């Protein structure tokens, strides 16, 4: 079994301390304890381009102008499940939007010609974890703007989004515990890691039951 975990952040200055990347590594750690392989993809390592609607992907099912997207997409098609970890931007990071829009286009063009079409990602379990700079009060807005946005795209791509529970039907969201300010222009965020660890473990258990 092979799972992918995609860190969607665009922020360069955080480097290995990116919250998205840290959450991806947590997922990999917990899955490895179950002897399940998990590859982490950091979108900052890829140069991606927006879809221009040229239609060339209809014949190849790959983007004719974006080799880095094709590398990511090939990994996704060979996986047994995927996690998307995304911060709240406006509403989601640009590179993640580019990945989703190209996967949508590849699927939609074929479905439009044949409504019985099943994509290469048909039924692929997908977990979604969002996070931002707010505490518990902000989580529902992150769900609406991040989780639900990603889930809507994945529905078109024919993936199967894994719910956490009835309320959180498009994944989970992680709050900050405390936000502090120093001389840097960016806020310093502290997290309740024991709580986060438990929530991710719970979500992974739910996720694996879908595979």
From TrEMBL:
Residues in NADPH-dependent FMN reductase-like domain copies: 1-136
Stored InterPro entries: Flavoprotein-like_sf (IPR029039), FMN_Rdtase-like_dom (IPR005025), ISF_SsuE-like (IPR051796)
Keywords, ordered alphabetically: Flavoprotein, FMN
PANTHER family assigned: NAD(P)H-DEPENDENT FMN-CONTAINING OXIDOREDUCTASE YWQN-RELATED
This protein's name: Flavodoxin family protein
Upper taxonomic lineage: Bacteria, Bacillati, Bacillota, Clostridia, Lachnospirales
């Amino acid at each position: 079994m092979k799972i992918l975990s995609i860190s969607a952040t665009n922020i360069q200055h955080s480097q290995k301390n990116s919250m998205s990347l840290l959450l991806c590594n947590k997922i990999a750690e917990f899955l490895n304890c179950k002897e399940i392989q998990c590859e982490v993809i950091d979108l900052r390592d890829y140069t991606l381009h927006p879809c221009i609607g040229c239609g060339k992907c209809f014949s190849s099912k790959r983007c004719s102008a974006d080799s880095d997207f094709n590398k990511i997409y090939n990994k996704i098609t060979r996986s047994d499940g995927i996690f998307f970890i995304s911060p709240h931007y406006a509403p989601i990071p640009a590179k993640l939007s580019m990945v989703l829009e190209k996967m949508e286009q590849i699927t939609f063009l074929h479905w439009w010609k044949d409504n019985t079409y099943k994509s290469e990602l048909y039924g692929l379990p997908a977990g979604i974890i969002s996070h931002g700079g707010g505490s518990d009060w902000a989580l529902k807005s992150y769900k609406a703007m991040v989780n639900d946005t990603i889930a809507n795209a994945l529905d078109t791509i024919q993936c199967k989004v894994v719910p956490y529970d009835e309320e959180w039907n498009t994944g989970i969201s992680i709050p900050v515990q405390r936000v502090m300010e120093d001389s840097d222009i960016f806020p310093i965020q502290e997290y309740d890691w024991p709580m986060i660890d438990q929530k991710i473990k719970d979500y992974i258990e739910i996720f694996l039951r879908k595979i």
